[in-house]
Amino acid sequence: MFNFLFYFSLFFIYSVLGWITEMFVVNIYRKKVSNRGFLIGPYCPIYGVTAIIMILFLGKSNNDLVTLFFMTIIICSTIEYITSLIMEKLFKARWWDYTERTLNIDGRVCLSNSIAFGVLGVLLIKYINPLFKTILLLIPIQIFVVISIILLLVFVTDFILSFNIVFNLKKTAETLRKDYTDEISDYIKETLKNKSKLFKRILNAFPNLDLRHRRKK
Length: 217
Hints:
The protein is mostly helical. It has helices spanning 2-30, 45-58, 65-91, 111-138, 141-176, 182-195, 197-205; strands at residues 104-105, 109-110. The longest helix has 36 residues, at 141-176.
């Protein structure tokens, strides 16, 4: 039980740090403040999941920085690609698109992001994770367990509510969809924003969200 809560705490921390990173990088680029991610709270689970996977599989490679760098690129890019594919299949929507960036794969991953992930992965395994592990182990176990369980309940509740919101967004978009043109896609987004503040937050977080179904060939 303690090990599960310990790794969940690390997952939660890196999900929050991922959200903060998205806020700084993406919002500075867009020059507009919005809550990144499709969850209601300030965390991006893809960062937490990726961090935990790297910790488990690359933790022993912290002395070989070159191997660590390239393995991080492979792991992060693979997770990002699979996540994009699953979310598109599940929600019939494209959540991010790197088509206009240099050396991208199907618009789901791109070279610049992969290199950034490689650098962050080295910092994570070499310096950041050892620091957070030390801090967490300094917390009295009773207090740590209570706080971790509260965070777990909050996260699970948020996850369930947010998925319900996104599925409703998908359902509502389908009832409004009349064509496959960009104009109709924009009309759907504006209509959804007017229907619900929660829908509006999702659409503000993902301004390039493509709500159109792909035509079957």
